[in-house]
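[Meeting: bench + compute handoff]

Bench side (C.D.) handed over the final construct sequence. Compute side (W.E.) agreed to return the predicted structure before the next meeting so the bench team could plan truncations. Sequence as handed over:
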Amino acid sequence: MLFGAFLFLPEFEWARPDTMLTVVAAIIEHQGKILACQRARGGRFELLWEFPGGKVEPGETPEQALARELKEELGVTARIGREVYRSKYSYAEMREPIELVFFAASAVPDQIENKEFEQIAWRTPESLPELNFLAADRDLIDRVASGVIRVNRSQT
């Protein structure tokens, strides 16, 4: 016979080795330049560059999450196109690894407003490596800068 009490603890995502945070990002191209965004001062990964986007929330598709994030960060309704690139990365500063999914996206440049970033900039693909991008973005940056991956509206 077994006596005693059982304690059931909630399952924490960070305790599961198979947990991965899905993050989406937009590569918005206009007239041969790509929109890059510098993270705000004082936050996590401050002043590093990235493509706009964010976490996929429960119940959202990656495309829905990206459209929501672009509305929040840039005040714009964007057309989300094809998936361009996907990678996985583990930051020491984060409890779980991330799966980062990049999509081509289009938006009217005159309607884009910087709502969250330190600054935003339109850059030629070749000049992207000059910016200090987040580590998870660097492989894509190299591929876009070298022309291995091309992003333009006609492909979205």
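W.E. noted at the follow-up: The two ends are 65 Å apart (CA to CA). C.D. will use this when planning the next construct.
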